[in-house]
Amino acid sequence: VASQLFSQTAATAYFPLDFRWVVGRILSRVRPRVVVLFETEIWPNFINSAISLGIPVVVVNGRISEASFRYYRLLPWIFRNIFARISRIGMQSGADAERAVALGAKPDAVFICGNMKFDAVSEPPSAERIEAIRRELLLPRNASLIVGGSTHQGEEKALVNAYKRLLDKKPDTRLLIAPRHPERFDEVEVLIRSQGFDVLRRSRCSSKLKPPASNTVILLDTIGELAQVYALSTISFVGGSLANVGGHNIIEPAAVAKAIVFGPHMHHFKDIKEIFLSEQAAIMVSSEDELYERLRELLHNPERIRAIGDAALRVVERNRGATERYFAFLKDFL
């Protein structure tokens, strides 16, 4: 991806294995003005070699999870020296900054700059584009759409089971599932059909087809459309969270003011999750039954759907700007 995005402006290469003789040779040949590491890319030999060659090392969008913090503290003779030698460390949150200092970073070298993920969302699709997607997916105008985005094994079945129960009370509801991994598209179609539903695959949508009935689940089997589909949703369930995967990015549906639901396993997005929950900008569920209950409650309360979506958008807007803050402190090294 990087080679495609930056083919005209930068050279790209795989990061070297963290052996001293390997990284020393590469750094001596490349001689960068500064090394910028993202999030938790703490490679002891690489960092020590860079500093030994007089190359400053900077961390941006830094994040230290509780698990990583415990691991680093088990090896203080390695990591205290590493953190103390990093020139500047920009962290996503106050908790991350405190952990960096506890691990040996100099307090005056640590800054709280926020999370660049809030800046990474694309521009929301226009009203015309959203309407075009609705027509392409053959959705009735009055349908409430539940989108299950970036789902993993077990989550599709939970969504389909919840949908089956919802149809008794809200027959105008429709369900769209977007599996995280393309190689699971066929598997998910088989699972949906085994639960008694028909499947309409996005790749086969055609104006010649009839609009899907309530016994049809839409399967998003294309790449790059999920963010736009979130904009069409009434409620967005973000996967990797009922399944113990660690969660996926909830900022995409938040950026288009959607009511967001996710499961309890959001450890890869712990700080973001806590921000949204504290602002009543998302709902966390712990089980398939609770997923059904929360979806049922929301579908019967459009005002609450709107309030959660509005709160989610406010969270995104309030946390934008981290990229500019990181760039501002990088300018000292350029």
TrEMBL record:
Example of a GO MF term: Kdo transferase activity
Domain 3-deoxy-D-manno-octulosonic-acid transferase N-terminal: 2-120
InterPro entries linked to this entry: Glycos_transf_N, Glycos_transf_N_sf, Kdotransferase
Organism per entry: Abyssobacteria bacterium (strain SURF_5)
PANTHER family listed in its UniProt record: 3-DEOXY-D-MANNO-OCTULOSONIC ACID TRANSFERASE, MITOCHONDRIAL-RELATED, 3-DEOXY-MANNO-OCTULOSONATE CYTIDYLYLTRANSFERASE
Cellular component GO terms held in the UniProt record: plasma membrane
Origin organism lineage: Bacteria, Pseudomonadati, Candidatus Hydrogenedentota, Candidatus Abyssobacteria
Name of this chain's protein: 3-deoxy-D-manno-octulosonic acid transferase
Subcellular localization: Cell membrane
GO biological process: lipid A biosynthetic process; lipopolysaccharide core region biosynthetic process
Enzyme class: transferase
Biological or metabolic pathway of the protein: Bacterial outer membrane biogenesis; LPS core biosynthesis
Catalytic activity: lipid IVA (E. coli) + CMP-3-deoxy-beta-D-manno-octulosonate = alpha-Kdo-(2->6)-lipid IVA (E. coli) + CMP + H(+)
Keyword Cell membrane annotated: yes
Family: Belongs to the glycosyltransferase group 1 family. Glycosyltransferase 30 subfamily.
UniProt-listed Enzyme Commission number(s): 2.4.99.12
Pfam family, one: Glycos_transf_N
SUPFAM superfamilies the record matches: UDP-Glycosyltransferase/glycogen phosphorylase
Coiled coil: none
Domain of life assignment: Bacteria
Site annotation Transition state stabilizer: residues: E39, K117
Keyword set, alphabetical order: Cell membrane, Lipopolysaccharide biosynthesis, Membrane, Transferase
Function: Involved in lipopolysaccharide (LPS) biosynthesis. Catalyzes the transfer of 3-deoxy-D-manno-octulosonate (Kdo) residue(s) from CMP-Kdo to lipid IV(A), the tetraacyldisaccharide-1,4'-bisphosphate precursor of lipid A.
